[in-house]
Amino acid sequence: MTDPHHPEPDxxxxxxxxxxxxxxxxxxxxxxxxxxxxxxxxxxxKGLDAQALLITLxxxxxxxxxxxxxLFFGLDVTRYNIWKSVSLVLTVxxxxxxxxxxxxxxxxxxxxxxxPEMPGMPMQPTLLQ
Amino acid sequence: MDASRGSDGPLPPLWHYGETExxxxxxxxxxxxxxxxxxxxxxxxxxxxxxxxxxxxxxxxGPTAAQIMHPVAAFWQTIAVLSSVLSYSLATVxxxxxxxxxxxxxxxxxxxxxxxFIALEFxxxxxxxxxxxxxxxxxxxxxxxxxxxxxxxxxMFGILWMLVLILQILRSGFNTAxxxxxxxxxxxxxxxxxxxVCVYVFVYLRGTFQ
Lengths: 129, 210
Prior knowledge:
The complex is a heterodimer. By secondary structure, chain A is mainly α. Chain A has a domain at 20-73. Chain A has four helices and no strands. Chain A is elongated. Chain B is an all-alpha fold. Chain B has helices spanning 24-53, 56-59, 65-68, 71-95, 100-130, 139-172, 176-205. The longest helix of chain B has 34 residues, at 139-172. Residues 1-5 of chain B have low confidence and may be disordered. Chains A and B meet through helix 1, helix 2, helix 3 and helix 4 of A and helix 1, helix 4 and helix 7 of B.
């Protein structure tokens, strides 16, 4: 309902509408598709051993996520975006704890509970090996 | 009051006298952002389960990741989801000038690319089902299907949301409520690109080299 004494401000003038920009979006697109293409090439050519490849790909995806948070989501410290940035930074430990601790716990369980490897029964290494 | 004004400008007052309107757009986009962080934690839980269950023992004699992942085929999904996100994002660039046809065009192209993504995912699932790799075959396959299908379900709901927004734009134009929903959907849709980066790298690529 529109109050005649307080006319609704133009929604298109809002800072979160104004922050859209094609340069950032196109850069985010080219960066993501390009770097995932590089990741695909690295994986297919098998030039690196498994651990080096996992570390490289993890670094690459963390870089892409940070790039997307700025180029796509437009996260920064202006008054319209500061609380989005702060809440994301405060949530990052939860990601690390939930994924990292789970994998670590099951990795140690694997060592504690499993029988030593039998001949002819190859065991696949866990994520941490 | 612009709090970022330089030291030569007038100082901002300590408090405003009288009524101050709250910002109806920012309060909702922040709320939606907080929902998305909790949604990201759902994915964190699914990735944790996948990281644990992606093992020969949990494959239970069935197919392992190396046997069912086709990262080159999945790269087409990467292009589809990113093109959809780019198209929707460009629609919100057209929104700045109130260009209704530009916004509608961007959303329609985003729906098309989103549809292509879902079609590719269904094709991938159908070929896995055809070789007996169903979610009930092993713990590994359960974790794989739930993780990938949760992302696919988000894509479907995003497309549904776009269809509803097209109707709302045609009916109401760019009023505050519709603009807020367009901004929230932009957050939601761009978030699908971020999740796909993790799915592509840690499921499809990693599956081929362990």
